[in-house]
C-alpha cells in the first residue's frame, strides 16, 4: 500500500512550531512467496475434467488470523463449480474457507493464519477444454484488511492432455486400388464438440480426397486444408458419449494394393 505523507516539524522547547513540511508518500511493496506450485491432484490433466488442485508455497511474512490468499487461474479454467462461503471445496493449512471467486480468481480466508509452508487443496475445478499449456498460476497473501503481504507465481503452467475419441469403425464402399468410392467414419467423442469447432481426419497420403464432400447436415468441409480432411461441426454440435458417423465422397483409393491406417 501507499503510506500517508511523513510530517516533519521543527519547534521550540515549549512546543511552538517553527516550520512544518510534508514529505512524499512511500509505496510499500509485497514480499516474495517461495516455491509456488500448482498441480491437479492425481495428475488429472485431461481437458474438461473436474478435479482438485493442490497449491503449495512458503511465505516470507506470516499470514495473520483471518488473512487471505488470492489464487489467479488461467482464464480458460472453469471455476463455476467451486462453492464459496465455507470449506466445502477447500482443505489444508490454517482452517481455510473460500470467501469469494470471480471467473478466474479464488479468494481463501485462513481462520487460523499460517506461517512458513502453506498447502491448500481446492476441489471442483474444471480444466480448460482444449489441449495447451496454461498460463502460470499467481498467488498473493493478504492481511485481514485486504492489504498484500507476499506474492509469487508458479514456474510453469499445466500441460493439458487430450481425451479419447472412440473410432468404432471405418467402412469403405470399395477397397479396389485406384477406385473412386466413399468412406464412412463411425466415432464417439468423449467430450462435447461445439458448433464451429473442428474434426480432423488424417488419411494415408496416397489417398486423393481434395473434392470429397460430407453430404451431412452435421458437418461441412473446410477445403483450405488439402492435406487432410478438416470438418467443421455445424449446429447444434456433438454431445459427449453419443455415436456419430460421417460419409465422405468421392475418395480415390491408393493406386497400388497396400494396407493403410
Number of strands: 18
Rg result = 29 Å
Instruction: Please state how the strands of the largest beta sheet are arranged side by side.
Output: 3-12-11-6-9-8
Q: What are the low-pLDDT stretches, counting only 5+ consecutive residues below 50? A: none
Mean pLDDT across the residues is 92
Q: SSE order in H/E notation?
A: EEEEEEEEEEEEEEEEEE
User: For the report, how would you describe the main beta sheet?
Assistant: 6 strands, mixed
Portion of residues in beta strands equals: 35-45%
Give the helix tally.
0
**Separation, N- and C-terminal Cα atoms:** 63 Å
Can you give the helix content as a percent range?
under 10%
Tertiary shape: elongated
Structure characterization notes:
- A 6-stranded mixed sheet has the order 3-12-11-6-9-8, with no helix packed on it. A 4-stranded antiparallel sheet has the order 4-5-10-7, with no helix packed on it.
- The mean pLDDT is 92.
- The chain has strands at 7-11, 17-22, 31-32, 34-40, 50-58, 67-72, 90-92, 96-101, 105-110, 117-126, 138-142, 148-153, 166-172, 180-188, 198-201, 219-222, 229-233, 244-252.
- Strand 8 (96-101) and strand 9 form a beta hairpin.
- It is 0% helix and 42% strand.
- The chain contains no helices and 18 strands.
- It starts with 6 loop residues before the first strand and ends in a 9-residue tail after the last strand.
- With 261 residues, the chain is mainly beta.
- The protein is elongated, with a radius of gyration of 29 Å.
